[in-house]
Task: structure prediction
Amino acid sequence: MAIVGATGAVGAEFLRLFTERSFPVGELRLLASAKSIGKTAEFDGRTILIEEATEESFNGIDVAFFSAGASRSKALVPVALHAGALVIDNSSAFRADSGIPLVIPEINGELIKKESRLYPVANCSAIILLVAVNPLRKLGHIDRLIVSTYQSASGGGAAVMRELTEQTRAVLAGEGSPPAVLPHPYAFNLFSHNTDVDLENGYNGEELKVISESRKILGMPELKINVTCVRVPVVRAHSESVTVEFAGPAPTRTQVHEVLSQAPGVKVVDDREANHFPMPIEASGQNDVLVGRIRADLSNPNAICMFVSGDQLLKGAALNAVQIAEQYYNVANR
Result:
């Protein structure tokens, strides 16, 4: 098994998940950029040396998890596939390819086939959104989604997480801390997601990914969906405000509760009396997506509103990848 991007935030979660889920790991190669050569990581009582990811790194590898960015994936994923590996890629490099399935196992796991060996992991915000939204399709046809995201530093990786922590310490100490990784000051601030903005339509790259990938995963190419993605000064776990518009009258809160309570990968957190709803601090480290603030849209009888929090490093990345690998081998061994 190989992890490309082993020194990053998602790479560390892979190692934890392998132990937590008793994932069968024999030889493990931890791969990263040249600057990480000589570093080590601990796994299963072993100290493993970090190696540079090269075209020779995949000989004899059965499963390769990629989490090192789209450019590295474009260069090395074809090499890993040629070497015979099952490849699960956390980058955006292959998500839009029409012939390649985009899988969230709780939603469309039936797309995992023995003969297919490349599985991109969807955008983290799209995964967290759809784990919460897809079960509601049992209650009626969904006509439109309106989504605002509150995206944490973990979505930008270890460097962004460090920048938020260091800037926060500096600001509290009365010191200056100019941004180095992100384009704007991060501590005690929020701003439009730091992907490029399309100058014609005004949407940033993250918003466009959520729109296109949600349509692909749900198999609803004409789904009306409007998304606003914002980076907020939270270290870990993304949150989202979601309005779900149905083609007819909206289901009741009780119906929504019942469906979500039975949905895989979902935990309902919806205590009105205590004003206790999903929070990133409680979603961090959890495999489930937290869903709450379930209520009727007072402006639209066909819509319901809810609030969602999910760990971007887990269900939004590493966990979804490991689930795909687990299901692939279940299919392959039938």
In short: The longest helix spans residues 314-332. The longest strand covers residues 142-151.
